[in-house]
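--- STAGE predict ---
source: upstream dedup step, 1 unique chain passed
mode: sequence only
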Amino acid sequence: MGTALAREHAETDLTARAASYGMVAWAVDGMDVLAVQDATKRALAQLRGGGGPCFLELRTYRFRAHSMYDPDRYRDKAEVERWRQSDPIPALSGRLLAEGAVTEQEIAQWEGEIAAEISASVESADAAPLEPVADLTRFVTSEPGTP
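--- STAGE serialize ---
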């Protein structure tokens, strides 16, 4: 499923690793929607301004296990709960409400629209034909006879 960075790499600061390749790199609190927006604008300005590639690390926390087969026994439940207090969606909703930028009704409407879009996407995926077994490794490795 994955290995902690500290168990695999001597340098765990991903921005330092990226910078070692000569690119501009910085980290952002990925749990703060507005900080991510600002950092993305900064990265786009860098790219569009001809400043070359940049590395943007959005530091976030995964609330769930890697997959439905992952028992998630490697994390303390209290740790997950602490991070839930920084969940970016309720944090942004609360901020927008506090600033008077939106109403509870608007948020409820958006949540309904989002739920409908997710439901339609799931229905579409469920109705789609299954990938032929012979194609499951297509584009995973090079095809015989190709460079």
